[in-house]
Amino acid sequence: MTDPFMQLLGIEVRSVEAGRAHLAARVGPQHLNFHGSCHGGFLYSLADAAFALASNSHGVAAVALSTHMEYFKPVREGDQLEAQASQENLGRRTATYRIAITREGQTVALFTGTVYRMSEERS
User: Fold this and answer.
1) Residue 73 belongs to a domain
2) Residue 73 is part of which domain span?
3) How many angstroms from the chain centroid is the CA of residue 108?
4) Residues whose CB is less than 8 angstroms from the CB of residue 86 and which lie 6 or more positions away in sequence, other chains included
5) What is the pLDDT of residue 121?
6) What CATH code is carried by the domain that includes residue 90?
């Protein structure tokens, strides 16, 4: 499962299961900011893609209510990134997820997000 924006950014889906998603991407020159490090928007997009896949993995349409992103370490061109999404809470109408972005096992950014679960069945 992927979308055109993920394809444009070069994001690969490694796995999706109920409440979880694992994505990967290599930082290319197109992902850099004017400082020569990885643009925060690329890291956010990687985390958001994992968030979307994990939160929609239950067969119920889910849309974002809120997100928060913290950046811990700089990321450089050529770095291989992994995004691991895990479900922290699943309610009838809302669910919360935590997405860790890592490089060689070290967390470089952390994303949390809450979704609204639209209905019991996807239309």
Assistant:
1) yes
2) 4-117
3) 13
4) 19, 20, 54, 97, 98, 99
5) 53
6) 3.10.129.10
Give which of 10, 100, 94, 90 is closest to 50, Cα–Cα: 100
Q: Which residues contact 56 (CB under 8 A, 6 or more apart)?
A: 62
Q: How many domains does the chain have?
A: 1
Rounded CA Rg of the chain? 14
Residue 123 lies inside a defined structural domain of this protein: no
CA-nearest of 28, 19, 30 to 56 is 19
Look up tokens 């967390």; give the residue: 107
Count of residues making up the chain: 123
Q: Is residue 67 part of a domain?
A: yes
Mean pLDDT in each 10-residue stretch from start to end of the chain (123 residues)? 91 98 99 98 99 97 98 99 99 98 98 92 49
